Amino acid sequence: MVIRKLALKNYRNIEETEFFPCEEVNIVYGENAQGKTNIIEAVWLFTGCKSFRGAKDKELVRFGEEKSELSLDYFTAGASASAALEITNRRKAFSGGVPLASPVGLMGEFTAVVFSPAHLGLVKNGPAERRKFLDTAICQIKPSYTAALRDYARALEQRNSLLKDIPYHGELLDTLDVWDERLVQAGDKITEERVKYALLLEESAKTVYQGLSDGKETFDVRYESTEDNHFGEMLRRQRKNDILAGSTSVGPHRDDIDIRINGVSARAFGSQGQQRSAALALKMAEGEIVKNVTGEYPVLLLDDVMSELDASRQNYVLNHIRDRQVFITCCDPDALERAGTGKKFRIKNGSIV
């Protein structure tokens, strides 16, 4: 997967710019608030996912403008391809000039892995962040997974609404079985895919983490499910408690991945350095899994994270990003001379100069 050209118009603080990266390491540098992360974010949107910064679509449009226009020319599977996005209060996506029903249609067409300072909290923050990591990663290698996520979210919303109403309208209790069935159908698919992905993740992440720790520490990843392989039975067993609480207590929306270093919880007992290494191992493993499944590396997006890593971790990352296209944002490009061959792009006031 290689980007040939990125063109942006009225995106964030960028009025209009074109970007022609090389096939290796591309360093985007400049002072703070000049638009470095906006470049990374724009590339990420072509995966079909929402902004990794949590921004709403309307927040991506340059102030005072009606819409943003983004286009991407790239090379994949031995052929040239293109995609485009138009953003107003929502995103419209195009692949090869053909309108798509939803930006989700881009999933699997263009793949990327992004690692930002926010991802350093992947280990130490709550389970919601780890579930989002799993779901986003799975969607890139299995776009059909998004349908299960969508169906589950709808069924969960309806079930929780019923749980809140049943104490006041007892006749609604009989309708709970319908939503339980729909929740189980989608939930079982989600759990199955997450468990399979967690196994792949552990295999790849173990190798990365051993490199980061110089072989001195062990690393394990295990998917933790609240269902116990009998989701429907668990829902029935918890029904009274769920009605009292007004929410669903078991299911994929409550699951987590247990990350262990030297056999103990990285979240509870890991040092800051260990937690950062674990997060980095997970994200680098994500790229390896995409490569193993699709046959080519995804584009690697490193947004201002090198300064968060010590010299040894920086060296490990830079020595393991060969044979793929990489974008690195930073304030000082000289600090990344160890990346070897590549191109540098200075950004100022939203323009490549």
What does this 3D model show about the protein?
The chain has helices at 36-45, 127-141, 145-165, 176-212, 231-237, 239-245, 266-269, 272-294, 311-319, and strands at 2-11, 14-19, 25-29, 68-76, 79-87, 91-95, 98-99, 112-115, 219-224, 256-261, 264-265, 299-303, 326-330, 342-348, 351-352. The chain has a six-stranded antiparallel sheet, covered by helices on one side. It is α/β, with parallel strands linked by helices. The mean pLDDT is 92. It starts with a strand and ends with a strand. The longest helix has 37 residues, at 176-212.
Characteristics:
Glutathione S-transferase Yfyf (Class Pi), Chain A, domain 2, 353 residues, 9 helices, Rossmann fold, single chain, six-stranded antiparallel beta sheet, alpha/beta
In short:
The protein has 353 residues and is of the alpha/beta class. The protein has helices at 36-45, 127-141, 145-165, 176-212, 231-237, 239-245, 266-269, 272-294, 311-319, and strands at residues 2-11, 14-19, 25-29, 68-76, 79-87, 91-95, 98-99, 112-115, 219-224, 256-261, 264-265, 299-303, 326-330, 342-348, 351-352.
SSE diagram, text form:
Layout: E1 2-11, E2 14-19, E3 25-29, H1 36-45, E4 68-76, E5 79-87, E6 91-95, E7 98-99, E8 112-115, H2 127-141, H3 145-165, H4 176-212, E9 219-224, H5 231-237, H6 239-245, E10 256-261, E11 264-265, H7 266-269, H8 272-294, E12 299-303, H9 311-319, E13 326-330, E14 342-348, E15 351-352
Parallel strand pairs: 3-13, 3-14, 8-12, 12-13
Antiparallel strand pairs: 1-2, 1-4, 4-5, 5-6, 6-7, 9-10, 10-11, 14-15
Low-confidence stretches: none
Query: Architecture of the largest domain, according to CATH?
Result: Up-down Bundle
* Spatial sequence of strands, sheet with the most strands: 2-1-4-5-6-7
For the record, give the distance between the C-alpha atoms at the N and C termini, rounded to a whole number: 26 Å
Per CATH, what is the topology of the largest domain? Glutathione S-transferase Yfyf (Class Pi), Chain A, domain 2
- Report helical residue fraction: 25-40%
Tell me the overall shape: globular
Determine the structural class based on helices, strands and strand pairing: alpha/beta
CATH superfamily assignment of the largest domain?
RecF/RecN/SMC, N-terminal domain
Give the H and E element order.
EEEHEEEEEHHHEHHEEHHEHEEE
Based on CA atoms alone, the radius of gyration comes out at: 22 Å
Number of strands: 15
User: Mean of the pLDDT scores?
Assistant: 92
CATH class of the largest domain, named Mainly Alpha
| Count of discrete structural domains | 2
Tally of DSSP helical segments: 9
Strand content: 15-25%
> How can the largest sheet be summarized?
6 strands, antiparallel
